[in-house]
Amino acid sequence: MMAPVGYVGLKNLGSTCYMNSLMQQFFMMPHFRYGLLMAASALQDQEDQQAVAQRDEPKSDSLLYQFQALLGFLSFSEKQSYDTTPFCLTYKDENGQPVNVRIQQDAQEFFNVLVDRLEKRLKSSPMQHLFRRIFGGTVINQLVCHGGCGSIRESSEDFYTLSLEVKGKNDLIDSLTSYGMKSFTACACCLGGWRGLTRTLVATLILAYSPDTCVSVRR
User: Fold this and answer.
1) Is residue 201 domain-resident?
2) pLDDT surpassing 60 at residue 202
3) Same domain for 128 and 21?
4) Which of 147, 196, 216, 219 gives the lowest tally of CB atoms within 10 Å of its CB?
5) How much is the pLDDT for 194?
6) What confidence tens digit (pLDDT) does each residue in 165-178 have?
7) Burial class of residue 213, CB neighbours in 10 A (0-12, 13-18, 19+)
8) pTM (whole model) above 0.85
9) For 36-50, 66-80, 183-197, which range has the lowest pLDDT when averaged over its residues?
């Protein structure tokens, strides 16, 4: 029977707590949960032949289907817990073998790999931007010359997860404010000129992030 708290658990198969904790977080985000569950019908509405071929893969070997089954079980089951073995069998390692449930893995790395694989499965479907819309953000890398030329160069980079320093920080906002690397390097514009070797500040700034951005803490 379901636990008195009203939620269904996930069975730990050995060392899958990193996986289970992330899956429970996914479940507790209704806008993500419903969006992913709707992806099945969205894929069925696709008319291109590639999507049709992908849809014909066995459900027992479909990562998307098993992820949806897991979320559906957590949503509607009356049992105490769900056995994640079917999902683990479809989540393959770099050698094409099912993930070893006895080996602990990094949760952030698992998140990144899972998102990458599911995005490829949802490509060209109405749900192809689901992860970007919910988890996505952008950082700006700035190079600001503190010498004579005063040049500023910028480049942007998208992300799904942030790795934040928490040691000595009061809260998450404090960590976000101090995010990024700040260092000095030589300014390419000033080199070889009469100014000689000048310093350029290299800084990384968060341009935009989602309220649902996944954060990895560095202690």
Assistant:
1) yes
2) no
3) yes
4) 219
5) 34
6) 888 888 877 877 77
7) middle
8) no
9) 183-197
Enter the tokens of residue 157: 């980079």
User: Whole-angstrom Cα distance, residue 26 to residue 134?
Assistant: 11
Lowest mean pLDDT among 26-30, 40-44, 49-53, 97-101: 49-53
Task: Using alpha carbons, list the distances in angstroms from residue 43 to 29, 35, 55, 62.
Answer: 22, 12, 7, 13
- Per residue in 3-47, pLDDT (tens digit) is 677 889 999 999 999 999 999 999 999 999 999 988 865 555 554
The kind and range of the H/E element at 9 are strand 9-10
CA distance between the termini of the chain:
39
Any alpha helices (H) in 45-189, and if so which ranges? 49-55, 63-76, 85-90, 107-122, 130-135, 172-177
The reply to whether 84 and 59 lie within a common domain is yes
Q: What is the spatial distance between Cα 61 and Cα 163, in angstroms, rounded to a whole number?
A: 32
Number of domains comprising the chain:
2
Q: Which amino acid is at 12?
A: N
Q: Tokens standing for 82?
A: 């769900």
Q: Pick from 112, 68, 122, 119: which is nearest to 90 by CA?
A: 68
List the domain range (segments joined by +) for residue 73.
9-133
Residues in Cβ contact with 151 at an 8 Å cutoff, skipping those fewer than 6 apart = 143, 144, 145, 187, 189
